[in-house]
UniProtKB/TrEMBL annotation, chain A:
Subcellular location(s) per record: Periplasm
PROSITE patterns assigned: PROKAR_LIPOPROTEIN (PS51257)
KW Acetylation (keyword) present: no
Organism for this UniProt entry: Enterovirga aerilata
Family membership noted in the UniProt record: Belongs to the bacterial solute-binding protein 5 family.
Keywords: Signal
UniProt name for this protein: ABC transporter substrate-binding protein
From TrEMBL, chain B:
Residue ranges occupied by any ABC transmembrane type-1 domain in the UniProt entry: 97-312
Topological type in the membrane: Multi-pass membrane protein
Entry similarity comment: Belongs to the binding-protein-dependent transport system permease family.
SUPFAM superfamilies reported for this sequence: MetI-like (SSF161098)
Pfam families: BPD_transp_1, BPD_transp_1_N
High-level lineage: Bacteria, Pseudomonadati, Pseudomonadota, Alphaproteobacteria, Hyphomicrobiales
Residue ranges crossing the lipid bilayer per the database entry: 101-121, 133-157, 185-205, 287-307
The keyword Cell membrane appears for this protein: yes
Highest taxon of source: Bacteria
GO CC terms: plasma membrane
Annotated source species: Enterovirga aerilata
GO biological process, alphabetically ordered: transmembrane transport
The protein, known as: ABC transporter permease
Keywords assigned by UniProt, alphabetized: Cell membrane, Membrane, Transmembrane, Transmembrane helix, Transport
Amino acid sequence: MKRSILGAASIAALLACAGAAGAQQAASGSPKKGGALQVVVTPEPPMLMQGLNQNGPTNMIAGNIYESLLRYDEKLNPMPSLAKSWEISPDQTVYTFKLQEGVTWHDGKPFTADDVVFTLDKFLREVHPRWRPIVNAQVKAIEKVDDLTVRVSLKQPFGPFMLSQEVASAPMIPKHVYEGTDFRANPANNTPIGTGPMKFGEWRKGSFVKLVRNEAYWDKDRPHFDEMYFQFIPDAAARAVAYETGKVDVLTGGAVEIFDVARLAKLPNSCVTTKGWEMFAPHAWITPNTTRGILGNKTFRQAMMYAIDRDFGRDVIWSGYGKIPTGPISSKTKFYSAEGVKIYKYDPEMAKKLVKESGYKGEKLQFLGLPYGETWQRWAEAIKQNFADVGINMDIVSTDVPGWTQRTSNFDFDLTFNFLYQLGDPATGVARSYVSTNIVKGNPFGNVGSYSNPEVDKLFAEAAIAPAEARQALYTKVQQILAEELPVLWLLELDFPTVYRCNVKDLVTTAIGINDSAKNVWKE
Amino acid sequence: MLRFLASRLAKGVVVLLAIAVLNFALIRAAPGDPATVMAGEAGAADEVFVQQLRERFGLDRPMVEQLGIYLKGILTLDLGFSYRQGRSVASLVGERLPATLLLTGSAFAISLLLGTALGALAARRAGTWADTAITTAALLFYATPLFWIALMSQILFSLKLGLVPNVGYETIGAGYTGLARVLDILHHLILPALTLGLFFTALYARMMRASMLETAGSDYVRTARAKGVSPSVVTRRHVARNAILPVVTLAGLQAGQIVGGAILTETVFAWPGIGRLMFEALAQRDYQVLLGVFFVSSAMVVLFNLVTDLVYRAVDPRIQVGG
């Protein structure tokens, strides 16, 4: 695709990125330089090499060390990062990225198009579970045009491509450090080298990670802090006390139990935000194993949905945080629509009626709990009570994280909680839970409930590669079908509130919030 | 004596190998493996990816072969490599060891000295208010869950009184060096060491008291008193020395666990020790790290059992350790 034929779409894209660059400026007065930011993340990450590990805490720390081509605002519009501009061909199959000038790796070597090609075409293709399916199925070629220009050619239009370049999904990796090495055993994994605003300083295992300012950072006025410390405090109550005693400035989402958030928010100089999760949009649900007896019966699944008091779950269990979903797509994610979808209000009488109609004989169902802390345990107990009220018998089975992952991967459950990131676009973050090609053992985040509907498969497949303007109608249709059939029981669009000192400014300015670099953050 | 030592060391090696095999089997019996955990963390995975990880970690090989590789590593003192953390297990264990030794060693010293002294005092003042106070406090600390005492002490001494830090090994970001750093670490050590120490203090005090009272009723003590030996000499030479044997047994057991860390205390106080390393490795099925920590802990237990036997002989020459 020749750049000369790029048309109106590319001009629009250029304009869009110019506007977004402006949005990156600090929004809260003149930033002060210097000082240190103390952040709690939990649990301690296994490593900081973001290309190899995408654990939440890894992202929160390494998102300051590594960078990707793009960042995203809270409406999921792309913003410049290592790519200062981009052009999209009219047929939406060729993406040309112009790179920032004067960018260097933390070891002083220049960052060039060679690094981008190596990262996307070699490193992440081999090791990154989110990038692999995109690059293998959608990308025809990734080429260097010149030292500061990279061209990615797709096999066909792929709607979510522009959303696939956030730092956790596509962190840039230094070619000169990793080429020709065993990626997973490279010693540099312990002293990560990126282009980000902060450099790796020190990791005292079990205590903290220290990052220091990258004096050679390409975005000249940033970062504002001299140092950042990420502390590891394994006990949730002790984390809360550490915040109260002033040892830390920021409690990242999930660092304290949700029922502690309101109490901490009332402390002097304490603020709370739920922003910064627009890209990931964690969506929580119960997966019924549709291959097991009554759970394959749509009427019974609808009965379960009417039986669950989702408002109670949000207001009491989740302390008022979150939003009741209408279907498979989060209201934060592109192509969300509630138009014509079946709505399930809490209605025990309707549930009892449908339970009877379904032919349920009182058989005991096993509910595999999600071992992510007290809140999930309480939620399971509340739902058990909801089910008991309408005559559905259920036992809760406990396990730890590896146990849950293995049982879910092997479809060894009747019902289980799950929550998945939506990643901004239904093609990458939603379809995977419902399409029949994803009924594959060994993958805990596939279609583990084994729901299969050829029409749903077709709609998701078409929508992924349809022109942008045609996608909404296809996704609206699929939301209507799924809300009727209930392959899973959607419970809550989760919020993970971040608790922080109010004098910490511009903490969350992008769609991945605290998972992104803190280049704009400063302390008053 | 030398023959005894050689024999015990040989038995110790056999025991350690048996423990290593048992640990290996137990860990593999737990559901899940490192590959599924890592796939889970990424929030996405395909079958090929998970299989690649399994091959990488050697989990696709027959179980017997994996066990053989592990045992061969142990025999050459190679604890293996954690692909999950990108580090050798020896380095991971090694960097946690100082913090663990400081915490558990301090708690051991506090509990042994304070516990035996309080137990002896309670026995000498049996039936008085001092005895009642010591035994009640000991019962209370023994019966109360450690994590609850830990959290309450944080709320009282850190949050309300502001006397000591509630978590951590040192003040993060303060940049202390030399003596200032040592004092800072000791300041952070106070709460966890006392919390852990008080639990064992209670154990030692109860055991010392009971043992002394039992010994005080022995014929030879009565005889010593009848001979006119002064009460303090009777207590020191005849009662305490004989009564301390069960305490030595308990101390040997506790000393053996020093290297294994203290999972609860380290977790609640965010102390960067081996107990936490083990707990986190368990939660992530980091097999190599788990096996490494288990092995080092087992070796210490075996070693301290041997030391305990030797201390028996020093305390009570009637015991023939070689017999």
